[in-house]
Design goal:
The protein contains 18 helices and 28 strands. The protein is α+β, with helices and mostly antiparallel strands. Helix 3 runs antiparallel to helix 4 and helix 11 crosses helix 12. The relative contact order is 0.08. Bound molecules: zinc ion (ZN) (2 copies). The site of one zinc ion has 4 residues, from strand 16.
């Protein structure tokens, strides 16, 4: 596995050199930046005499195939910095000269250069033996973009070419298939087609508006989570969207978020910020009256907006928004109760993700301090030791197999982070359970302990679906828009074969409505075939068709989304069947 991985890294990086060689043939005056291997392939940055167009990519690929077929060896040489500077100045490669000067400043005396075909490049290596080791059917150039030299906006902009390479052509084929599938599932595209959310120039970028269909999904998720959490003693609370900055100065978030905080000015000399997180508000509900050890654990949950002043980023999508609806919850408990609280939260997460078919592909990180840099965290070392031990014990007792990751803890405590893979194999990190001794102390939260003295509670933070916006984007892509029945905005579509059967269709519809099933009638003056294909595009889980036979027998002809065969059932039986499926979150 490691060998294969190393081999792939070599292939990626070596192919970047071959790309540079091809660019040099096409543009002899090209200036070269850097060309590293990246997660899905490689890129190379160039300064070119003209802007690249997509049509350039196949031409470059053709030149790359020639370089591969010529089977040039990668010849390594170690030369002095002085020689290297002379060479790259002579061939007029100012970016390489700059890189060599940087190496010189860092104390290097020599550099390595590699020659392959017409290209001599500054590089630490290693590479494959010769260009012919690359399968010429297993690489592709995928994208052109702009990139600042050294990633700094103050520097000149270069042109970046991205590519991918695999060991064999099957690898490339699978990759291209995934890319195509991802494009089909893109939540921005499906969000529009299924009418789930929209944006308005007047409202502003990064501020999605959920339509009736999208709101149903959001509400169903919320109802589901709240129901599960109520079973574990969580009570719903609701807090304002803003607060005095003092709240976040006390919590430490003001320093942490800095310029990401939205400042709100008021005419009454009172300045507010839009809340960047939910936790501090909830501490004040705990603090609103005296608490006894007998009241603990006290568990709060809410689904409210929070705000981060971020660059709008990916326009038109739900992945990055500035008004984020977050499902958040906290348990205030005694030290002795922490372990059970964490276990409950792990169970909640397990149930929720199992119901969405995401649990099978998960792994868990035990995210602890960076032991070398304790100054990055708030709270006492002794509390940290205890918290980390509790999480370790939970992992062992529940058989979670959490893998320890140093330096991944939150500001105020260690945590368990849950990772999943969606249908396309993309890693998702959302749920988390975090221990926090520090925040209750900062807010001087206390309860009367069983000896009549005062103790500070522990705060356990938990996120299950995190932000509704990001989660809905994920679900759209995971299910390719074909949501499970309980989440579908429309669960059943009723299609009378013709106008003659409209009355029975209306009767069917009202029976479904009475059973609290989300139903839509499609009796437009169009052919049945056209109406069926229209409804299928909306990915409605059940389409029922009614005609003469169904009216006579009091039945419905049922088409299940993604299933070819049609099934005829008595109406009552159909209703009973799907009510069961909705309850069981099938
Ligand atoms: Zn190299
Ligand atoms: Zn929290």
């Amino acid at each position: 596995m490691t060998n294969e991985k190393n081999n792939l890294e070599l292939l990626k990086h070596s192919t970047a050199h071959i790309l540079a060689g091809a660019v040099l043939e096409m543009f002899p005056e090209a200036k070269f930046g850097i060309g590293p291997a990246i997660e899905n392939g490689f890129y190379y940055d160039f300064q070119l005499p003209r802007t690249l167009i997509p049509e350039d990519l196949p031409l470059l690929e053709e030149k790359m195939r020639e370089i591969i077929k010529a089977n040039h060896p990668f010849e390594k040489a170690e030369i002095s910095i002085k020689e290297a500077l002379e060479h790259f100045e002579k061939v007029n490669q100012p970016l390489k000269v700059e890189l060599i000067s940087d190496l010189q400043k860092a104390g290097n005396e020599t550099v390595t250069i590699y020659k392959s075909g017409n290209l001599v490049d500054l590089c630490a290596g290693p590479h494959i033996e010769s260009t012919g080791k690359i399968n010429f059917k297993a690489f592709a150039l995928t994208k052109i973009s702009g990139a600042y030299w050294k990633g700094d906006e103050k520097n000149q902009q270069l042109q970046r070419i991205y590519g991918v390479v695999f060991e064999d052509k099957e690898g490339l084929k699978n990759y291209l298939h995934l890319v195509e599938e991802a494009a089909k599932r893109d939540h921005r595209k499906l969000g529009k087609e299924l009418d789930l959310f929209c944006f308005s120039d007047l409202v502003g970028p990064g501020l999605p508006l959920f339509t009736p269909n999208g709101t149903i999904i959001k509400d169903e998720l919320q109802k589901h989570i709240e129901k599960v959490c109520r079973g574990y003693g969580f009570q719903k609370v609701s807090t304002p969207h803003l607060a005095k900055i003092d709240l976040y100065e006390k919590s430490g978030h003001a320093q942490k978020f800095g310029a990401e905080l939205f400042q709100v000015t008021s005419h009454y000399k009172q300045n507010y910020v839009l809340k960047p997180v939910q936790c501090p508000h909830q501490t004040q509900i705990f603090a609103s009256k005296p608490r006894s050890y007998r009241d603990l654990p006290i568990r709060y949950m809410e689904s409210e907006k929070q705000y981060r002043d971020e660059k709008p980023g990916e326009i038109g999508g739900l992945q990055r928004v500035i008004a984020i609806t977050v499902e958040d919850g906290h348990s205030f408990c005694t030290v002795d109760q922490v372990k059970q609280e964490v276990k409950n939260m792990v169970e909640i997460i397990q149930n929720f993700y199992t119901s969405l078919g995401l649990w099978e592909n998960h792994w868990i990180s035990l995210s602890v301090r960076d032991y070398a840099h304790p100054e990055k965290y708030i709270g006492d070392a002794a509390d940290w030791d205890e918290c980390e031990k509790i999480l370790q014990d939970v992992s062992a007792e529940m058989g979670l197999g959490a893998i320890k990751h140093e330096g991944e803890a939150a500001l105020y405590g260690p945590k368990l982070d849950f990772m999943f893979r969606d249908a396309l194999g993309k890693e998702i990190q959302i749920p988390t359970v975090q221990l926090d001794f520090a925040t209750p102390k900062r807010f001087e939260l206390e309860y009367t302990n069983n000896e009549g003295g005062k103790s500070s509670p522990v705060m356990v933070h938990r996120a299950i679906l995190g932000s509704y916006e990001r989660f809905i984007a994920l679900l759209i892509e995971h299910f390719a828009g074909a949501f499970p029945l309980w989440l579908s905005p429309v669960q059943v579509a009723v299609l009378p074969i013709s106008e003659k059967f409209a009355q029975y269709a209306a009767e069917v519809k009202s029976k479904l409505l009475v059973a609290d099933i989300r139903v839509e009638m499609n009796d437009k003056a169009e052919s049945l075939g056209k109406r069926i294909s229209e409804t299928e595009k909306q990915k409605t889980p059940y389409i029922i068709v009614v005609g003469e036979k169904e009216v006579a027998d009091k039945t419905v002809a049922v088409r299940t989304h993604g299933v070819k065969e049609q099934q005829t059932l008595p109406l009552d039986e159909f209703i009973e069947k799907i009510m069961k499926e909705i309850i069981n979150k099938k």
